[in-house]
Each structure stands twice: as C-alpha cells, then as structure tokens.
Design a protein that fits this description.
By secondary structure, the protein is mainly beta. The chain is 12% helix and 40% strand.
C-alpha cells in the first residue's frame, strides 16, 4: 500500500521544489490526536477529472493529522493556503518530516467508493489528507495528486468531510 497522502506524493517527482520548515514539530502541541473523543469524522476524498469524471481515493490511505503550528506551516507552504487544497502529482514538493511526526496521526483506508471514517476523535483542529492518482492511456506520469482539508472538531460533534 502506498503511504500517506502528502508523504507519498512528495516522493513522486519533486518538481514542486523543497519545502523548508521554520516551525519545529512539537509533539506536546498535537498529543490530543492520541486521546479518545466523542466525534466521528467520516467523508470522501476524490479528484474531478478535466472531462468531469471522478476518481476516488479507493484503496489509498487517508490520514487525520492534528493541525498544530508545524502542520499548518507545511499545508500553507505546500497547498497554498492554511485550509488545504490540492497539489497536482507533477508538482509534488520534497519534504523531510521529523521521525516522530508519523506517530501523531491516525490513518484509515478509503473504501471502493472513496469513503473513510475515523471513530472517537478528540476535539481539536485536524487535516484530513489523502492521495488520488491515476494514469491515462500510455502515460507514465500520473494525474491527480494530494488532497488536504482543515477540519475542526468542537463539542464532540461528528463531521462529514468532502476532500476534493
């Protein structure tokens, strides 16, 4: 299985340059991701093709990553805005996250329709990230890319998220 959205996509091409991080990763700031909460985060991740077709994240990993200062900087630099967005596969940036970064996220796998779920999520701000890649005809360069969306969990209320 390919790895997490931004991490895997960053290794594809590197045409988007290197993201230099100024903010250090602080595990204490994002430790809330390890706690059990009352909310469920469900949703779907997909790209819309130029012709109107939809390609989902079916079979790919989707991640729920706490939106601490480090991740907010990464998303702002990589996706162009703090709320998230898309990065085309051909523009994948290079980044080297600290080793402990991977311990402070939750992962799931998108089902055949591109649906995902995270149960018992604690209150806090998170990014939902995934990748959606496909090739057309004899092309060897994939289309699609990485997706990220900022989600805020408050009062233990469930969230349904569309990441596109």
């Amino acid at each position: 299985m390919r790895t997490l959205a931004v991490l895997a996509l960053a290794a594809l091409a590197g045409c988007g340059g290197t993201i230099e991080m100024a903010t250090p990763f602080d595990a204490r700031e994002v430790a809330y991701v390890t706690r059990s909460g009352a909310a469920d985060v469900t949703g779907q991740a997909f790209f819309r093709q130029r012709g109107g077709g939809v390609v989902t994240c079916a079979g790919e990993e989707v991640a729920l990553i706490p939106a601490g200062a480090y991740m907010r900087e990464f998303v702002t630099k990589g996706f162009g805005r703090v709320e998230g967005g898309t990065i085309p596969a051909i523009m994948a940036p290079q980044v080297s996250h600290p080793p402990e970064f991977a311990q402070y996220r939750r992962t799931a796998t998108c089902d055949a329709e591109g649906d995902f779920e995270f149960r018992n999520v604690a209150n806090g701000d998170y990014y939902v990230t995934s990748i959606v890649l496909w090739t057309v005809g004899d092309q060897i360069i994939p289309e699609g890319g990485a997706l990220a969306k900022l989600v805020q969990i408050r009062g233990g209320r469930d969230q349904r998220v569309i990441v596109s």
